[in-house]
Amino acid sequence: xxxxxxxxxxxxxxxxxxxxxxxxxxxxxxxxxxxxxxxxxxxxxxxxxxxxxxxxxxxxxxxxxxxxxxxxxxxxxxxxxxxxxxxxxxxxxxxxxxxxxxxxxxxxxxxxxxxxxxxxxxxxxxxxxxxxxxxxxxxxxxxxxxxxxxxxxxxxxxxxxxxxxxxxxxxxxxxxxxxxxxxxxxxxxxxxxxxxxxxxxxxxxxxxxxxxxxxxxx
Length: 218
Hints:
The chain is an alpha+beta fold and 218 residues long. The chain is built from eight helices and twelve strands.
């Protein structure tokens, strides 16, 4: 897929963060789980439980002047269901590691709303970042992956998946018209987006689908 086609079809990206975390994200960037653990110098067994194991509940960690940072739960990725989705080529541990190395954005606002309205989140407030796709691509295109599915859930059924679900922009299959063969679902960036504040055009405090207020960008 060409960069122009990607930005034209999906001009905005959406990221759902915990309430009151925008100031930390603005100052420190959007960090993957692996980036957080590197920054906090978390290693050994403790790191394994965050990076290579299923997180049934969200976890708060802090230290080294960073935090508290909330690692989101992975309720929709229980190991038994994930094993059925992955097959023999990839283990759940490998999949958890792969996903924890990346930062995720929705390309469709409806996907964001579905997550905000999910049973686990509908009663909670969140800081929702809205990002200019073209701006982010100018800075980080070489580190972007595209995925045709929600890689972090096995519901309502464990759809088959593997590492090749993530494709670099140039390798994402398109038709002769330039349109993607399969609609993009996730826009993914390796490791972190340290300059995310440069690409955010709006931050909303939301509860379910309701916009409670706009947050200051600076």
